[in-house]
Amino acid sequence: MTETHTGRSLKILVLYATTGGNTALVAEAIAGNLRRGGHGDTTVQRVEQTTVGDIEACEVLVWGSPTYGHGQLDPRAIAFVQKVVRGIDLRGKPCAVFGLGDPKYDRDHNIESAVILTDFVEGHGGVSLIPPLKINRTPVPVLQTLVADWCAGLLEKLAGDDIQTLT
């Protein structure tokens, strides 16, 4: 087990929905940063392969989705919310959210997935550790910058003393 500043590695689930693969790229980049930051027990998983038990078993949930149409989640994320986790109790669970978007769909609702997922997590009692990561257009140019910087902020929160009271 890899040690963190808090003295232990946390079990982290990076959950995502994707159609074209961009959200998967971001999920893998986030997981890689978390593992390098001392959280070797970080799992990346598609929503279609995830159960309530998987979410309950993790100590930290990181959840992402692209935005489609007029500010909608990926269809797989919608199905997951409606059929799998609708009534889940995330009370006190440390969470972080990431969303992708493209203004070609709807400029007024670009990257709305980050807002929707944050509202879901907090509405079910989860604790947002940091503001959501929001990626506009393709994530490839920002994997080593914006994504890495966001992960550094998340790792800082995970290393803080206050995380011990949540996990």
Features:
167 residues, alpha/beta, Rossmann fold, seven-stranded mixed sheet, 6 helices, 7 strands, globular, disordered N terminus
Let me know the average pLDDT: 92
Helix content: 25-40%
Contiguous low-pLDDT stretches (5 residues minimum) are: 1-6
CATH superfamily label: Flavodoxin domain
The tally of structural domains comes to 1
The CATH class is identified as: Alpha Beta
CATH architecture tag: 3-Layer(aba) Sandwich
CATH topology: Rossmann fold
Largest sheet, described in full? Answer: 7 strands, mixed
Which structural category do the helix and sheet elements fall into?
A: alpha/beta
Order of helices and strands: EHEHEEHEHEEHH
Distance between the termini: 17 Å
> DSSP helix count?
6
**Overall spatial form:** globular
